[in-house]
Amino acid sequence: MRAIGRNPDHLKILPAAFVVIGDTVEQARAKRAKLDSLVYYESAIASLSIALGHDASGFDPDAPLPDIPETNASKSGQAQVIKLARDEGLTVRQLAQRYGGYSGLAFVGTAATIADHMEEWLTDEGSDGFNVVFPYLPQGLDDVVERLVPELQRRGLFREDYTGVTLRDHLGLPRPANRFFSTTE
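RE: above sequence
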């Protein structure tokens, strides 16, 4: 933003974040695993094949991910899939169901551990906030509102009052000039 003459505070990065909250980290992981297991395998394996840049339909679904040959697909995307499989010890089925469900940024844990990870993103300037993706309704929303938001508020990371009437106001962004209407009130 500075390089193009704009105020860096006028750009907000708000990635989508899938949030699964449990009483323990293990319980939250079990919830995530249950959600992933509900993804239809044939659709999931197609999603995994796309992410790998390689047809995964012939892989043993209950075995670890085999070595993947070089392809012209995205190298970084493929590496991310392989790393996830190795780091979490996922079978092909589990990996496919993850990619067939929600495979983006996810915070899975207790309200406190999720707040820790969000705080790290915020303080390291990885984001300015998050668009929370709920795993299911209404309980997923209730968990965020009743458990995560109070923890973030205790840390001073989440507002307790609104600062204006528009999203732009809440994000502290100036209102751009409008050639059709006056912005003065």
